[in-house]
């Protein structure tokens, strides 16, 4: 049997009871697979890696070593949330690596989006591999692979071209050939969320909007500078706060700010004030292959505009992107 293929008889996990059954099965399977060996996991804080972490903590406790690499491109408060949830609340074996300078130094002056993605992906593997080499007795690598990832790789094997290079920890160096533990690999995203809630993870974490592996690196357009990245992180935090306040966070599939590498003239305190524009993108989709834009009420847009231009240093305009996918992609990069 091809164990990368979802059996047609596999029931869709839609309830807590079905999730509990899945969790029990996976716990037994993982224990049988890994014995008393250690398992390493790159814990980004995204839905998939968080659910894998919670599942494996339940199955093997401290035999799981979670490594959270902060590449300096996380959203505001995200690394702190990972430390609070997994390091403190779930008492996981968590290694936190602040690699901000390593990433930002390598990215300095690089404006080509695919080059940026390659640098971030490769450096992620370097940092992760450095941490892995410090550990002893690790034989397995856990990954938050889900069924759409497997379907995507089938497509690529058939010779179809990927639109952009995605980010994961595959491709570790030769001396770190681990066997994989992928407990979610036959699940669709909605099932992963049901399993996550059944494991006791908070709703906000399990229903968190998607966030690309290269993080704010794909939204800080052109060559990343620390000041523009800081402005982006602060503006994005305001957008998320305002969407949460008015209920849009529950309704809109994905929403974020992108900042292009251009400045325009504005006026502040009766003086010339050159600044970047912050672009709001808020879309709805079912599978991320096509997307429509969410129509945000003007009063909310005015409030967001006011707050971003008054609270974030360096931003003097706020724009709204009305482009569907296709022709735009969801991300700007
Ligand atoms: P695009 O921009 O291609 O994005 O329309 C489609 C969806 O994919 C997300 N995205 C990523 N997710 N790693 C991920 O896990 C990545 O490298 C990556 N790049 C884009 C994007 O946020 C959108 O939801």
Task: Kindly describe this structure.
By secondary structure, this protein is α/β, with parallel strands linked by helices. It has two domains: 16-210, Rossmann fold (3-Layer(aba) Sandwich), CATH 3.40.50.620; 219-320, GMP Synthetase, Chain A, domain 3, CATH 3.30.300. It has eleven helices and ten strands. The strands form two sheets. Strands 3-2-1-4-5 form a five-stranded parallel β-sheet, sandwiched between helices. Strands 6, 7, 8, 9 and 10 form a five-stranded mixed β-sheet that branches. Helix 6 links the parallel strand 4 and strand 5. Helix 1 (16-34) crosses helix 2 (47-60), helix 2 crosses helix 7 (189-198) and helix 9 runs antiparallel to helix 11. The protein is globular. The protein starts with 15 loop residues before the first helix and ends in a 13-residue tail after the last strand. It binds xanthosine-5'-monophosphate (XMP). Xanthosine-5'-monophosphate binds at residues 163-164, 166-167, 210, 212-214, 254, 288, 325, 329-331.
Q: Figure out the total of helices.
A: 11
Average pLDDT level: 95
Q: Structural class from helices and strands?
A: alpha/beta
Helix content: 40-55%
Q: What is the overall silhouette?
A: globular
The first-level CATH class name of the largest domain: Alpha Beta
CATH homologous superfamily title of the largest domain: HUPs
The succession of helices and strands, N to C, reads: HEHEHEHHEHEHHHHEEEEHE
- Low-confidence segments, given as residue ranges, are none
CATH architecture title of the largest domain: 3-Layer(aba) Sandwich
Question: Can you tell me the CATH topology of the largest domain?
Answer: Rossmann fold
What small molecules does the structure contain?
xanthosine-5'-monophosphate
Q: Provide the domain count.
A: 2
Strand arrangement, major sheet: 3-2-1-4-5
Q: What amount of the residues lies in strands?
A: 15-25%
Q: What is the total tally of β strands? A: 10
Radius of gyration: 21 Å
How far is the N terminus from the C terminus?
A: 41 Å
